[in-house]
Amino acid sequence: MWDYLKLVLFGLIAVLTMYLASEARDLAFMVASLIGLLSAAVAFIYTLRGMGNARAPKTGYLDGPVRIGVILTAFWGVVGFLVGTWIAFQLAFPNLNFAWAEGYLNFGRLRPLHTSAVIFAFGGTGLVTTSFYVVQRTTGARLWNDGLAWFVFWGYQITILLAATGYLLGATQGKEYAEFEWYTDWWLTVVWVGYLLLYMGTLMKRKEPHIYVANWFYLSFIITIAMLHVVNNLSIPVSLFGSKSVQVFAGVQDAMTQWWYGHNAVGFFLTAGFLGMMYYFVPKQAERPVFSYKLSIIHFWALIFLYIWAGPHHLHYTALPDWASTLGMVFSVILWMPSWGGMINGLMTLSGAWDKLRTDPIIRMMVVSVGFYGMSTFEGPMMSIKAVNSLSHYTDWTIGHVHSGALGWNGMITFGALYFLFPRLWNKAGIYSNRLVSWHFWLATIGIIFYAASMWVTGIMEGLMWREIDAQGFLVNSFADTVAAKFPMYVVRGIGGILYLTGALIMAYNLWMTVKRAPLAREASAAAPAE
User: Fold this and answer.
1) pTM
2) For 69-114, what is each residue's pLDDT tens digit?
3) Burial of residue 259, with CB atoms counted within 10 A of its CB: 0-12 exposed, 13-18 middle, 19 or more buried
4) Residues of the chain above pLDDT 90, percent
5) DSSP 291
6) At how many degrees (to 10) do helices 361-384 and 273-286 cross?
7) Residue 458 contacts by C-beta under 8 Å, 6 or more apart in sequence?
């Protein structure tokens, strides 16, 4: 009976999206409707082909979405790094904005594609995938509902396709980290509610009485992102047959709402979710318990209480009331302490196993990621201080800060998780080549240093040039002067991107060969009460 209902539902969605495509007012909305039509058609055919087949009993863990998820995480990573490296060189060499590609592949269209590909496609798929794996292993329970798990997984991938095609075709809200237009926002809301229900349902049917701390971080990421997403994306579509919409908020209220969202997207998507990764995969790879479980609980509660208040530091010296930006600065500085508590907890988990840094390149990658987490969470509060922000804001220093965190913290911990998961998901004795992991580690680390250091140098130089005045009080440098002065550092940044991308390609090859060539483990891993 349920299969028949699904067929009716998918059929109705296909008809609706076909109608929307036929009435579309712009190309972006037409393509989005056709993606919906294709997705519904694939789901309809898959359901139809499965009708009448005997269903296998649901035993063990549901690792199907996890297997596909780790593959797509690696794929989206390579795509995001490739686009990022290309647009880095477009800034250094503007002639790379080819006339024939204007309106589709110029910097303005590719830049949001890059940020969303790295954050939401690579990072988001990694978070959804690892959360499915971790919650099952730490609760000893299968995911609450198989169908819902597959819906969440594929629904999120459809979100990525809707966003990516929209950016290339000009559909964007123009809000940092929130470029999705209204139809993508609505779809992601449905998927995210399903994600929350799935995660909560799995925790409620757990066989272990204790909820491990990694699950607290994953859960805070899911709940808070839902709240941020809904409030910041309140908008009214200009037409139900077009991609454009009008924001409900305006002026300084819109700016405040945007950076309440923007900073907490960093805080809960790029920090809390990845801390869930850290608290599971670092102890597992090190084969050591978390250094201080009590510290991990303090880290969690302090982080989620303080982070939510820090957004106004993005709006120093603007129309935002001074008390609001000062409040954001104060909470940002306080936030340094719990952040470093988490970093220390992650690093000290290796107590008694420091020798693994010499022999295990995967744990080395994880430890460096925790180190970058510590550096970024020191630099961020420092840059939120008004005296520092007056120099750094609107400069490339901010770009260097963001990328040292994204590439160093988020990228490296995700790479480590992928290297951990691939052998276990395909029942292999280990990764195909530790030597290739080592190559990846050094290329990625050197690439990050090139990128961040060049942006720190050019950002501080830029800020100093902007504020330089002559004896009569006039500005010495024009904006064009600062752009010309930055050229060497832009080239260095591009080289750093090439190194990081090369490391990711080596990883993709290594993971592929792990599946194809690595020797099998002696015994297939079975579902255990908790790992």
Assistant:
1) 0.94
2) 999 999 999 999 999 999 999 999 999 999 999 989 999 999 999 9
3) buried
4) 91
5) S
6) 150
7) 395, 396, 485, 486, 489, 490
